[in-house]
Amino acid sequence: EAQVTQNPRYLITVTGKKLTVTCSQNMNHEYMSWYRQDPGLGLRQIYYSMNVEVTDKGDVPEGYKVSRKEKRNFPLILESPSPNQTSLYFCASRDGTGRDEQFFGPGTRLTVL
Amino acid sequence: GNSVTQMEGPVTLSEEAFLTINCTYTATGYPSLFWYVQYPGEGLQLLLKATKADDKGSNKGFEATYRKETTSFHLEKGSVQVSDSAVYFCALSDRAGGFKTIFGAGTRLFVKA
Asked: Do A97 and B100 make contact, defined as CB atoms within 8 angstroms?
């Protein structure tokens, strides 16, 4: 089954404690993204990757890091989480052409105390 | 830059009512247009898409027509069901924008039995 998986689905942590949210896709897609969803703001792109070892900032990259060492995986790293990073996070992937749909993971709800 | 504007919600309808959710866009190129749906507790999934002017996307009784003259992609359904209750996102992607997907803020739909 074609899918994007994220882990964990729920996470409560404290300010400053480094965390990683994993994302994996089994569709051999080149393009992967991370979004955060906040009420009234829709989805905002954090980082994206066009291929292995190629990443770039989205609209709200501050406080986040990513890496793309393998095509299937695109982890999101919060080196020092802060309460304003409390949000719902989605990983997504698609193939190289922008005409096609993105496939989304189920989401990770993060709370930073 | 590219942008998407969709009507604010929530929209509350009775079962079998007609649904319209307005979406307009601004783009420098010739974008592909999408409607995504997010059911409670889930990630976004593609509902329908249109890749050029005058195309009509359709799925599950929903329709939207790509209107270049009015830069619009309004979502319609003739008879909604309780199971259509969800958040709907209009989105665009185009080559001029590096195929980055831009999402609207989302419109929450409640359908009452």
From this structure: no
Q: Using an 8 Å Cβ cutoff, are A106 and A92 in contact?
A: no
Nearest alpha-carbon partner for A113 in A83, A75, A77: A83
pLDDT of A21-59, one tens digit each?
Answer: 999 999 999 999 999 999 888 899 999 998 899 999 998
Please name the member of A35, A42, A58 whose beta carbon is closest to the beta carbon of B104. Answer: A42
Closest listed residue to residue A25, CA positions, set A100, A94, A110: A94
* b (16+ CB within 10 A) / e for B27-37: beeebbbbbbb
Chain B interface residues (partner A, CB cutoff 8 A):
32, 34, 41-46, 49, 51, 89, 93-95, 99-101, 103-106
Contact B44 A97 (CB under 8 A): no
**What is the Cα–Cα distance from A91 to B60, expressed in whole angstroms?**
25
